[in-house]
Amino acid sequence: RDVRDTYIQGGMFQQDCVDESTNTTTYLRLLEMKGWLKFHTVSAPNSRLFLTSGNLGPHSTAVIEDKKTKAKFAVDSWYHDNGEPAEIVDLQEWKSGWKPQGPQKPVKARAR
Description:
The chain is α+β, with helices and mostly antiparallel strands. It has one domain. Helices cover 23% and strands 23% of the residues. The protein has helices at residues 17-33, 50-53, 91-95; strands spanning 40-48, 59-66, 72-76, 87-90. Strands 1-2-3-4 form a four-stranded antiparallel sheet. A hairpin with a 5-residue loop joins strand 2 and strand 3. The model has no long low-confidence stretch (mean pLDDT 81).
């Protein structure tokens, strides 16, 4: 089972941010193809470098764009366990190193 934050718990089924952003982009494109995204379009995934963000390493995210304003938003599912809601943040804020604040839920033990 995939749990939040690749650096906390590795394993054969653990997804990194590239996996997460690819999967999220795929799901969003399926929703878009069905006409279920009314106010946004799906853009290509985006990345930030650790040198500019101040984080441990590079990081990737899915991206949506507001149809009216053209504002872009990161849709980042990497910070939470699989199945939990993604973080949606202004893309420029995300690129400058944004990460969730406050206490995180503890990582659940992985079945072996």
